[in-house]
Write a structure and sequence with these properties.
Layout (H helix, E strand, L loop, with lengths): L7 E7 L13 H16 L7 E4 L22 H17 L5 E5 L4 H18 L4 E2 L5 H4 L4 H4 L7 H10 L6 H5 L8 H6 L23 H24 L14
Parallel strand pairs: 1-2, 1-3, 3-4
The structure holds zinc ion.
Length: 251
């Protein structure tokens, strides 16, 4: 890697560890992030313009919405911020200036913290930190109905991706019996909702996880991989690579 003249882009998968219904693993979000990273690294393995490596994941995040259930492991905003900035500064000192944060946990305070960390890392290193913001309208529009209709927490979209990425980690018997819980998470969050119980989601999921399929998960992963691959290219070329906040499909 060191002798290779192509610019190096490092992918950093992040949190969180939290309940995802009675059927999908606590690590659902980092599993999705890690799978995206793996697929992007594979897609760009022999690319003439850029090389990609994957950093060890940060499997935790700012996690308050699922605090009613065991398994939610919250870290404070300042903890996450310091960790992300320290990692970017340490890498920059070694001449590794291209980092992309790959995130699939969408609590507002978590996303805000990621952006604060990207700003601070850029201030201290002079390097833009890459980010694919899936709460942007133009990103969500390329994904599934459940995402377009306000997001998925352990719903059909997220569960399908786990089925495709880590077969065996979804309890498919439990999944098949789950009743639909239609809920526009984006709208609830925009109106100030602070946790899933208050939103009327008593089992820590929304949407229709019983309809999840491996095929849908594979298709979503193709779309996510294409979007992230472009962010990596743009970051390496100095032409972009960091989305501004999508404010829950409002922009
Ligand atoms: Zn999730």
């Amino acid at each position: 890697m060191i002798e290779d003249p192509r610019p190096v882009v490092l992918l950093l998968p992040v949190g969180s560890t939290e309940p995802h219904g009675p059927h999908s693993p606590l690590a659902t979000d980092p599993i999705i992030s890690a799978e995206m990273c793996l697929r992007v690294a594979r897609a760009l393995r022999d690319d003439p313009d850029v090389q990609v490596s994957i950093l060890p994941e940060i499997g935790y995040g700012v996690t308050r919405f699922t605090k009613a259930w065991p398994g939610a492991i919250h870290i404070e905003e300042e903890t996450l911020l310091a960790l992300l900035v320290d990692i970017c500064v340490s890498l920059a000192r070694q001449g590794l200036g291209h980092v992309v944060i790959v995130n699939n946990h969408f609590e507002p305070e978590h996303i805000k913290t990621l952006h604060r960390a990207m700003d601070e890392a850029e201030r201290r290193t002079g390097n833009v930190v890459g980010y694919l913001d899936l709460t942007r309208k133009r990103r969500a529009e390329q994904l599934t109905d459940e995402v377009r209709e306000g997001g998925s927490h352990a719903g059909r979209y997220e569960t399908s991706i786990v089925l495709a990425a880590r077969p065996g980690l979804v309890d498919e018997q439990v999944m098949a019996a789950l009743e639909p819980m239609p809920k526009n998470l984006a709208a609830e969050i925009a109106h100030g909702a602070k946790d899933f119980v208050a939103m009327g989601l008593p089992k820590a999921y929304n949407g229709t996880p019983a309809d999840a399929t491996v095929d849908e998960g594979r298709q979503s992963l193709v779309t996510l991989t294409d979007m992230l691959t472009q962010q990596v290219r743009d970051l390496a070329a100095g032409t972009g690579g960091r989305d501004t906040p999508g404010l829950y499909i409002r922009v």
